[in-house]
Specification:
The chain folds into 2 domains: about 25-65 and about 100-270 and about 320-425, Outer membrane efflux proteins (OEP); about 80-100 and about 270-315, no CATH class. Helix content is about 65%, strand content about 15%. The protein contains 9 helices and 4 strands, in the order αααββααααββαα. It has a 4-stranded antiparallel sheet, with no helix packed on it. Helix 2 (about 30-40) packs across helix 4, helix 7 (about 245-265) runs antiparallel to helix 8 (about 320-385) and helix 8 (about 320-385) packs antiparallel against helix 9 (about 395-425).
């Protein structure tokens, strides 16, 4: 083939390799990171909280600094009391002016409340990520457990076939064949149970991802290995206490309570009310004019225009907002105590999680590197000896059971390590990340 023909073919092959699986009609495996992102994007609770947060922020930005002015209109007449010429009309505008910056402090409280809602959304997102990761790990482990059970079922079938051949050759008693048949039946039952457990785990994961059913759940990616290297304990504790979500939420609650205390103290000061008024008063009175030496009765009418300024201020003799100040002060003191208690609890929790993680990590490493290969090698030797007619089937079944127990212990250690790591993610505020994943 000439170089003119091979160059286009090489380009096509390179393009086919670089195309994503979705472009080729295949759905990419679902990784831990993608599962968390999809769950957060499809979470109705987080969407509702985000919508509410936007409303809180808009409301906080629109809190007025001053109260609305008051318009007063008044009109009087003497027509009903025998004085039809007496009437008045007045208009006044009253404005309440606080002696303290009450409006700005109310805005600060509302903004602190909105920020608290934002931090709670972050905390809920982090906890949802932990729930999704643990569900993903449980589903992946159930899938691996099913694969192991299927391999053990195939092995039980081969042992039954070998036992049948040896029985026909007169080299094995019928009891051994029945033991092999019973083991196969147990394996088939266990396989059915494991398929049910896997379906249940997939349904739980599909629910968290917002899918309609487990049939919409794609194939899971390869289960990541537990991360071997972590930050030092002191460095991890220091960063965790700075970034831990529930501590940040509690600190923001304390900030909101302090803003509420400042607002309560400001509201204890009375507000000055300034008023401007204009009134027009018309009246008449009897009067006498001297004409040609005679007094003639008449009326003298007046039309007065009056401008006025009014100042009023409540006297804080009975109420100085004592109840609200005391309530806000107690919340500030209680919030400080709760923050200190949560900080001590967080330190203990993180230390415990680190201990459990390192224990599970070491157990998984031991099973994977030493115990697992040894158990598999022992089974291979016993199986070969059984095939050659050197031993009975009971020895092989015992070794098969030991391998099954070892594999189950390895899976449990892997699941415990990954779940504990995910819990550390929440406890440390996202400082950690699973191997192969970004925080």
């Amino acid at each position: 083939m000439s170089m003119r023909m091979t160059a286009p073919l090489l380009c096509l092959c390179a393009l086919a390799v670089t195309l994503p699986l979705t472009a080729l009609g295949m759905e990419a495996p679902l990784t831990l990171k993608k599962a968390v992102q999809q769950a957060v994007a499809n979470s109705r609770e987080i969407s509702a909280d985000t919508e509410e947060l936007q409303g809180l922020r808009n409301a906080a930005d629109r809190i007025p600094l001053l109260a609305n002015p008051v318009l007063e209109l008044e009109g009087t007449t003497g027509a009903l009391t025998g004085s039809p010429d007496d009437r008045s009309m007045s208009i006044a505008v009253l404005q309440e002016i606080p002696l303290a910056a009450v409006g700005s402090k109310r805005r600060s409280v509302a903004q602190a409340e909105a920020e608290l809602a934002h931090l709670k959304i972050n905390e809920r997102t982090l906890k949802l990520g932990d729930e999704v990761r643990r569900s993903w790990v449980a589903c992946a482990v159930e899938q691996q457990r099913l694969e192991l059970v299927q391999a053990q079922t195939e092995l039980a079938g081969r042992l039954l076939s070998i036992a049948g051949e040896r029985f026909k050759a007169g080299d094995l008693p019928e009891l051994e064949v029945r033991l092999a048949d019973l083991d196969l039946r147990k394996q088939l039952l266990r396989q059915t149970e494991q398929q049910t457990a896997l379906a249940s785990a997939r349904r739980q994961l599909a629910r968290l991802l917002g899918l309609s059913g487990e049939q919409d759940l794609p194939q899971l990616a390869v289960t990541p290995a537990p991360r071997m290297e972590l930050l030092g304990d002191e460095q991890l504790l220091s960063q965790a206490l700075e970034r831990r979500s529930d501590l940040i939420v509690m600190q923001q609650e304390a900030e909101r309570d302090r803003s509420a205390l400042e607002l309560a103290r400001s509201e204890a000061l009375p507000s000055l009310t300034v008023g401007l008024s204009y009134s027009n008063e018309r009246s008449s009175q009897n009067a006498y004019d001297l004409s040609a030496g005679q007094l003639l009765p008449g009326k003298e009418r007046t039309n007065d225009h009056i401008l006025g300024v009014k100042l009023s201020i409540p006297l804080p003799l009975f109420s100085r907002n004592q109840a609200e100040v005391a309530r806000a002060s107690s919340r500030v003191n209680a919030g400080s105590a709760r923050t200190d208690a949560l900080r001590r609890t967080a330190e203990v929790e993180i230390k415990d999680l680190l201990a459990y993680y390192r224990l599970a990590q070491g157990a998984w490493q031991l099973h994977r590197s030493t115990l697992g290969p040894a158990a598999q090698e022992n089974l291979n030797i016993q199986q070969q000896a059984f095939t050659l007619g050197e031993i009975g089937i009971q020895i092989v079944l015992d070794e098969k059971r030991r391998l099954s127990e070892q594999q189950e212990a390895e899976l449990k250690a892997l699941q415990l390590a990954l779940e504990t790591y995910s819990r550390l993610e929440v406890a440390t505020g996202g400082v950690l990340a699973l191997s192969g994943e970004t925080p």
